[in-house]
Write a structure and sequence with these properties.
Layout: E1 18-22, H1 33-45, E2 50-53, H2 64-76, E3 80-85, H3 101-106, E4 111-113, H4 118-126, E5 131-133, H5 137-141, H6 149-160, E6 164-166, E7 172-173, E8 193-194, E9 199-201, E10 206-214, H7 215-224, E11 237-242, H8 250-262, E12 271-275, H9 288-309, E13 315-319, E14 330-332, E15 335-339, E16 344-348
Parallel strand pairs: 1-2, 1-3, 3-4, 4-5, 10-11, 11-12, 12-13
Antiparallel strand pairs: 5-14, 6-16, 7-8, 9-13, 10-15, 15-16
Length: 349
């Protein structure tokens, strides 16, 4: 039997619980307060939680030192039963070294965020503290018009429910945004398109513990090696990855996975799960054919690269996590079971 890294057991939340809200990367709530306000309102109204924002949450350009103090304060406060990131960014790797591990070891609690928050997730993972990849205040809670049904369902499971749940594939998806600078867009509907469903390669039934995150963040994480897992810690893990709004070319994903392969990590990974790639952004407004081509190219290069290092592990792509909607919150450090024969996936919350 494969020996898996052990994680703390975190308490589920109760209605009325206080939660911390921080911006460990970018203070975008300061530029678009109406988006943050909507996310906070839904946290209170729809999920009946009591958010507490910290000093740098709505400050653009706040220092790494000040942000790190807010991160630690949010975890250290026993009144906070969970901590949420408002949004991602691009410099969180520089913040991690300023964190005192003892603060988190002495005050373990669920953390929600994704994208650049891959670094904080990985930091917590190294300490044996599980977290939840997804659920940004501005992006998911502040989603225009209403939170997508699947997004809300998995937020509810991550926050309040326990047990193993089968992952479902959304019938439709969205990756075309609405401009946050136009306040009136909060009541507008985003464009949803037909979803391709899960893309399977491999037929081995496996289970394991999730590790991974945003490709762009994992590249700088791998380069710096700050809190990068030891090879022994990755035994029995399932790699999950997704690309951000940069819409990186396929060779960038290839280089990351090649690096993992040369480290020997695909001997430890039990499977690879890939989130549906975002293929539209305001500065890259691809049409339907261009988006389909981009996604297909990424799928093919991921499969090819992984198969160079492991010929049998399941590779499942186009899952509903990451930078598109709806979004399934992934239990980072949580248990995954893959029934490849039945083409089913199960997450334990």
């Amino acid at each position: 039997m494969i020996s898996m890294k052990q994680f703390a057991k975190l308490q589920k939340l109760k209605l009325g619980d206080q939660v911390g809200v921080i911006s460990p990367s970018a203070g975008l709530p300061g530029l678009f307060p109406w988006v943050q306000d909507l996310g906070i309102e839904r946290l209170e109204r729809d999920f009946q939680l009591a958010p507490r924002e910290y000093a740098t949450t709505r400050q653009m350009g706040s220092s790494l030192e000040d942000r790190s103090k807010d991160v630690m304060a949010a975890f250290a406060d026993p009144s906070n039963k969970a901590v949420f990131a408002s949004i991602g960014g691009e410099d969180q790797i520089k913040l991690i070294k300023l964190l005192d591990p003892d603060v988190f070891l002495n005050n373990p609690k669920p953390f929600f965020g994704y994208s650049d928050s891959t670094h904080l997730h990985n930091f917590l993972w190294s300490l044996g503290i599980p977290s939840y990849y997804g659920g940004g205040i501005m992006t998911e809670f502040g989603f225009q018009q209403k939170i997508p049904e699947i997004t809300a369902k998995y937020l509810q499971r991550a926050l309040f429910e326990e047990g193993e749940f089968e992952i479902e594939s959304a019938d439709s998806f969205n990756d075309i945004g609405l401009d946050w600078s136009v306040k009136e867009n909060l009541s507008e509907s985003r464009i949803f398109e037909p979803n391709d469903g899960f893309q399977w390669n491999g037929n081995t039934n496996v289970e394991g513990i999730l590790w991974g995150g945003c490709v762009e963040s994992l590249i700088v994480q791998s380069t710096s090696e700050i809190y990068l897992p030891k090879a022994s810690d990755l035994e029995g893990t399932i790699l999950f990855i997704e690309t951000a709004e940069d819409i990186p070319e396929a060779w960038i994903v290839d280089y990351l996975l090649t690096g993992f392969g040369e480290r020997g990590w695909f001997d430890a990974f039990q499977a690879v799960l890939v989130g549906r790639p975002k293929a539209w952004e305001f500065d890259k407004q691809n049409n339907a054919d261009q988006k389909a081509s981009y996604k297909q190219q990424q799928r093919e290069i991921i499969t090819r690269t992984v198969r160079e290092y492991n010929s049998t592990i399941p590779i499942v792509q186009n899952l509903d996590f990451g930078h598109t909607a709806p979004q399934i919150v992934m239990p980072y450090g949580g248990h995954v079971r893959i029934d490849a024969g039945g083409q089913k996936l199960f997450l334990t919350y």
